[in-house]
Amino acid sequence: MRTQIGIIGGGPSGLCLARLLSLSGIKSVILERQTRDYVEARIRAGILEQGMVDLMRRAKVSDRLDKEGLVHDGIVLAFDGREERVDMASLTGGKRVTVYGQTELTKDLYDAVLEDENVTVIFSAGDVELSGYLEGSPKLSYTKDGKRSTVECDYIAGCDGYHGASRASVPRGMIREFERVYPFGWLGLLADTPPVHEELIYANHERGFALCSQRSHTRSRYYVQVGLDEKIEDWSDDRFWDEIRARLPAHIAERMVTGPSLEKSIAPLRSFVAEPLRFGTLFLVGDAGHIVPPTGAKGLNLAASDMYYLSTALIAYYNEGRSDLLDRYSEVALRRVWAAVRFSWWFTSITHKFGGDPIERKIQIAELDYLMSSTAGKTTIAENYVGLPFDPSFK
Ligand code: FAD
Ligand code: DHB
Asked: pLDDT by residue (tens digit) across 343-390?
């Protein structure tokens, strides 16, 4: 088979990229290791920056997002018995975020992509291997139903997440990887209960970090920081509800509606960046190239800027014969990546319990106290949380 863009991975990055390219007449083949049901069921991100919403609109897949997404103007920080609201909209000249689950966004993208004549999706594609991308003859091979097949293409987009085949295929001497693994994870619970508060609450507590999020007016998503040695089997729903209530201000904990979990899982926290993001005709996009701890809700939103830059660069190449934007992709994408890596690391550092040393928490509380007493402090949180702009010179 031959196509223009060979895409590895049918998560949000691969699907949205394929759709953006298709609308400019560019053909792609997506190789996805799992089934559609499996990909759609993975509970992950829930907060979309305006940049990601705009991209879904540009990809013409935003009907349901525009109807069902919940627009939030602010977040609440709870610490030391206080609750402080950061009014993001007023601090950023009207910028907001939208609550819309990655599960829903992925469904919307699959609905569009599977009807799209420019996009072919091959599910259950095993043992994907990349070759020729450094020599200008990129190829993907994969196994499906016991048969090995090949896709020849002009460019490869590695959209296959942190554990994918694309980054792993790069010769070690050509790539530099920066990584920090945090000494804790997040235990998340999804339940069909009304959210405890209309906005998200990020809580710094002496027992550890807690987050109250949501998917709709009737579905809540909650997280608590847990040790890396914790096992999901040891966390009954009751234990989870007791723990999160213990980490919240009493009057909020009292009004929390509990119920059976629809899903419960533990995710490790990591900061990771690969440099560069381009190797000959292979480009890394989204989690394949970088990971942030989830505290700033940036993972999916960083994938959005990669998709925007790479689709813009490929469209300029095919429609105008220009390769200057392809040459700038890695540098421009990495600049926004590092900004989000910094914010996610910093927001994690002021909200989580790192060790037992009492001075650590005193310093965190002093920093939160200062940030909340200062318009500059609140603005720095607001600007980063709503999302830093995409580079306007990239066109
Ligand atoms: P992925 O969503 O990882 O998609 C990659 C796709 O590639 C998958 O469908 C996978 O099956 C496929 N694939 C992998 N390897 C291969 C292969 N060898 N061959 C073919 N296909 C392959 N972000 C937030 O903002 N908030 C959160 O709360 C949050 N929670 C998260 C929880 C977890 C457990 C994880 C892993 C991530 C979380 N994230 C969160 C991050 C966010 O979900 C990701 O940034 C987002 O999914 C990135 O999209 P992606 O398409 O780049 O990668
Ligand atoms: C969610 C996840 C986050 O990492 C975050 O910072 C906010 C919300 C969520 O899953 O809803």
From this structure: 999 999 999 999 889 999 999 999 999 999 999 999 999 999 999 999
Token pair recorded at residue 266: 């533990």
In which element (H, E) is residue 324 found? helix 324-351
Q: What angle (nearest 5°) sits at the alpha carbon of residue 356, between those of residues 351 and 357?
A: 90
pLDDT digits (tens, 9 = 90+) for 278-290: 999 999 999 999 9
Nearest CA to 211 out of 186, 236, 181, 184 is that of 186
User: How many A from CA of 143 to the centre of ligand 1?
Assistant: 22
Q: Which residue's alpha carbon is nearest to atom 12 within ligand 1?
A: 9
* CA 355–ligand 2 middle distance (angstroms): 23
221 within ligand 2 shell (Cβ under 6 A): yes
Q: Which atom of ligand 1 is nearest to the CA of 223?
A: 28
How far apart, in whole angstroms, are the C-alpha atoms of residue 129 and residue 164?
Answer: 10
Look up the pTM and report it. Answer: 0.97
Contact 158, 288 (CB under 8 A): yes
User: Which residue numbers are catalytic?
Assistant: 72, 202, 294, 298, 385
